[in-house]
Amino acid sequence: MGHARFRWLTGLSIVEECGDEATAFQPGQRVVCVPSQAWSALDGSGTWQQMMVAPEANLFSVPDNVSDRDAAQLSVTTLTVCALLEAAEAAGKDKWLVQTAGGSALGRQVISMAKHRGIKLVSLVRRAAQKDELLQLGTDAVVATDGSVGDVTAKILEATGGQGASAALDCVGGEATQAVTAALQPGASTIIYGALGGPVLQMNILDVFMGKSLKPFILRQWLSCLSDERRQAVLHESMSWLQHGIIKPYIGETFPLEEASSAAAASLREGRGGKVYIES
């Protein structure tokens, strides 16, 4: 397997040099790099650096009609949406899915893909002011989480006509996990992919007795289980969503590389809008 040396630009990369056995790409070509399970920011081998060497199997070319800013989100946000919907396979066409953080960059992409696939979606948000905007994007219902857990569960059940959801996607934790899991059908699962609300999860023991479960999701672990061929197929599908405008990434402030620390700080601000973009 050949290797390519490339310049890393947030989620987008430019090939600088190709190894003797690397034939898939050319210097100057734009690519997206899919992180390997073996890479870690803790030992300096992760993607937070300006130059890297990676196997060709971890790279995917960016079509001319996909902008740098859109492509920069593919390796994390768009791929995660693809994987989460696969993990929540019970929520298929004409079935209900519920998600927390519906107004986030990833949550908006879930809305786009749910609409594209005919999945009925309830999106939870912290601020009721986001309701009209998310309904226009295509979510079927919006529930604000400023009430008690019981209120949120009741609103989800009301939105689904009393039948409950077939699966849930949760990146918040705490009471939000309990609220969405309580609104699931017996035997359904909540996919946990984040901890915005802190490290503690809550769940009603009665839901456990009803066969409901919590399933963890980590993108790099999911990718590491795919064959090279399957990984490339997933990348191709995800990139096609960007090419054809099925998914339109939610982009926020732009910072030059020299202000990376300011960009990191901006990414932690509540209500910041879209994903922060570092431009080189």
Notes on the structure:
- With 280 residues, the protein is of the alpha/beta class.
- The chain has 2 domains: 3-71 and 220-279, Quinone Oxidoreductase, Chain A, domain 1 (Alpha-Beta Complex); 92-217, Rossmann fold, CATH 3.40.50.720.
- Helix content is 33%, strand content 25%.
- It contains 10 helices and 13 strands.
- Strands 8-7-6-9-10-11 form a 6-stranded parallel β-sheet, sandwiched between helices. It has a 5-stranded antiparallel β-sheet with strand order 4-1-2-3-5.
- α3 (105-117) links the parallel β6 and β7.
- α2 crosses α3 (105-117) and α5 (149-159) runs parallel beside α6 (175-182).
- The longest helix is centred in the C-terminal third of the chain and has 16 residues, at 228-243.
- It is globular, with a radius of gyration of 20 Å.
- 39% of the residues are buried.
- The model has no long low-confidence stretch (mean pLDDT 88).
- Keywords: NADP, Oxidoreductase.
- InterPro entries: ADH-like_C, ER, GroES-like_sf, NAD(P)-bd_dom_sf.
- One of its GO terms (molecular function) is oxidoreductase activity, acting on NAD(P)H.
- It comes from Coccomyxa viridis.
- Residues 2-278 form the Enoyl reductase (ER) domain.
List keywords for this structure.
globular, alpha/beta, 2 domains, 5-stranded antiparallel beta sheet, 6-stranded parallel beta sheet, about 280 residues, about 35% helix
